[in-house]
Amino acid sequence: MRIDLHTHSTASDGTDTPAELVRNAADAGLDVVALTDHDTVGGHAAAKAALPPGLTLVTGAELSCRLPARDGSGDGISLHMLAYLFDPEEPELARERELVRDDRVPRARGMVAKLQELGVPVTWEQVERIAGDGAVGRPHIATAMVELGVVPTVSDAFTPEWLANDGRAYVEKHELDPFEAVRLVKAAGGVTVFAHPLALKRGVCVPESAIAELAAAGLDGIEVDHMDHDAPTRERLRGIAADLGVLTTGSSDYHGSRKTCRLGEYTTDPEIYGEIVRRATGAFPVPGAGG
Prior knowledge:
- There is one protein chain.
- Helix 5 packs across helix 6.
- By secondary structure, this protein is of the alpha/beta class.
- It has helices at residues 18-27, 44-49, 91-102, 104-117, 124-131, 138-147, 178-187, 208-216, 231-244, 270-279, and strands spanning 3-7, 32-35, 56-67, 77-84, 191-194, 221-225, 247-250, 286-287.
- It is globular, with a radius of gyration of 18 Å.
């Protein structure tokens, strides 16, 4: 089985519609794909309706979180929590997702204003056009920067010079405390995996001690095989996971043409996938019956 547990559609910041994503996943030879758009389940219905035979859909979301500064100073550290197979109607978790989504437009407008102050001629109208019906986010602003020739690729916009966490044009947003995210997802019957925990090029990463604390609070796993983790980092994460007794996953973090990663570029072991499904009680994987 080939299993990719981290992808994005136009419901957030990918370039494939949910229907296109599941068709492309089947064409890429995947057996299982998770749709994990940022802070939204808005693409799930369309993905289910278009699911090809032979492909199983795992419903999920990537939740925006921030670990508070331990000494009470500074802004804390931003991180992402993958949530799988939770009940999308559970009210507490649904309310938090809505708060994050409501903050996306003013936040994006703030980043556009900062870029303009830095001499980048990006406009809000340009970002709106790129985002379309999706939940506007940094990748849409980065795409605008690529269009203007400011950076060669979307990834090159995610640096301290521009849009990385705490970068010159970065603006904070409403984010969940990661411990609260773990609690809410578990209460909704879901499973949590810390996304790309040591992706250093994205900005400051949480300390290993915080990963241990999250594991003690119920975190199910950490994403190990990811394009932003080099081989030594993956080996280090496997050791951390073994010490903490948590699951390890692999995923593409596919965003369509917005990033260079391909569907199925990194995958999750079938036994790990089986354990994720076993732990979930909020929802179940959806087998493809044609669409």
